[in-house]
Amino acid sequence: MQTITATNYSVYFNENGYEYLNRILKPELYSKIFIIVDGNTAEYCLPNFLAHLATNIEIEIIELEAGEENKNIETCLQVWYSLTELEGDRKSIILNLGGGVVTDLGSFVACTFKRGIDFINIPTTLLGMVDAAIGGKNGVDLGILKNQIGIIREPKAVIVDTDFLQTLDGSQMRSGLAEMLKHGLIYDKSYWNKFKDLSNLNTNDLDTLIHESIAIKNTIVSEDLTENGIRKALNFGHTLGHAIESYCLEHPNVKSLLHGEAIAIGMILESHISKEMGLLNNEAYHEIKYCISDIFEKVSFTTEAINQIIDLLIFDKKNEFGKVQFVLLEEIGKTKLNQTCSNELIHNAFTDYQL
After folding, report:
1. DSSP secondary structure, 167-189, as one string
2. Binning pLDDT at 50, 70 and 90, where does residue 202 land?
3. pTM of the entire structure?
4. Deepest in the core among 5, 135, 151, 197, taking most CB within 10 A?
5. Comparing C-alpha atoms, which of 37, 344, 8 is closest to residue 154?
6. What tens digit of pLDDT does each residue of 62-105 get?
């Protein structure tokens, strides 16, 4: 697959990625390599990754506990202390080998350690490949509130090795698929149409879809790195999706949802709101609802749960002057930014989703 050029870095694929790594990981450029992993990637991905590295630089492994609940400042403190104890300096480099939690947190750690050291993201999940590792957003959660603390700074590079996808189960693959569906809905109807029938999807098809998804996100981010305009479109489904995800994190008795599973619900809900506000036609809404529902299992929400999810919306990062800002759809492939809606419309969207 062809390398994708971003504003200040490139996304390399498969063998090209390892060739790039071995070209730059030289003792004259870096003093020490720190590889950040979690318990899963340490077991299933790290051995294969190390087998591809050819460098004389000392390598240290820092392992995190897996799970969104560990994407917080407390974990950052542990990593900062580890970097210090292992004599990391300004010429150290961090390689983040993992899913969204590892790349988000590891990148944030790199941006803040010694006022910033180089880092490279090597995403090992589909979600990480098409979303979390791309675009320079780095950060952690504040309690149950998603990505409240962070910084925008692009990595030195991103390495996408699609062989890592063989380590994932179906739920993790679907989680990443949600972000790919989103890229079609907000930017490219022809890309969205490719997901209407996944029954004959093969490995080569998936690689092509991943490449296209990354290219779409990169195009949007390159126009608006700091999210003052068009980059907000990437938050479609995330205003309610993040609130749903936070609600599930706060209530251990409720079925936990992966990021993409929550975003899938958010996209259906926000598509319904788009329809009710006269932006999206009924046919397009039902196409979106049934396509996503065919892939993701429906989740039930009580009225009390919906009210608590609505209360969490005030903490969304897009909000301005105390108003909850939604990204809505005018049609498949076209968004309308900075929209507000009533709580009644949100309740109606949940009602329709659960039919």
Report:
1. G--HHHHHHHHHHHHHHHHHH-H
2. confident
3. 0.95
4. 135
5. 8
6. 999 999 999 999 999 999 999 999 999 999 999 999 999 999 99
Q: Do 183 and 35 contact (CB within 8 A), yes or no?
A: no
pLDDT tens sequence across 15-70: 999 999 999 999 999 999 999 999 999 999 999 999 999 999 999 999 999 999 99
Q: Is 157 exposed, middle or buried (0-12, 13-18, 19+ CB in 10 A)?
A: buried
Within this chain, do residues 176 and 215 fall inside the same structural domain, yes or no? yes
Q: Which of 168, 189, 224 is the last residue of a domain?
A: 168
Q: How many domains does the chain have?
A: 2
Distance CA(156)–CA(153), nearest Å, equals 10
Q: Scanning the structure block, which residue is given the tokens 């076209």?
A: 334
- DSSP for 297-341? ------HHHHHHHHHHGGG-TT-BTTB--EEEEEETTEEEEEE--
62 and 176 co-located in one domain: no
> Do 68 and 182 fall into the same domain?
no
Strands 10-13 and 4-5: antiparallel
Residue among 88, 89, 85, 91 nearest 26 (CA): 91
Question: Rounded to the nearest 10 degrees, what angle do helices 170-187 and 259-276 cross at?
Answer: 30
Q: Which domain holds residue 325?
A: 171-353
Considering the domain architecture, whether residues 21 and 157 belong to the same structural domain is answered as yes
* pLDDT tens-digit map of 227-254: 999 999 999 999 999 999 999 999 988 9
Task: Quote the tokens at residue 347.
Answer: 């309740």
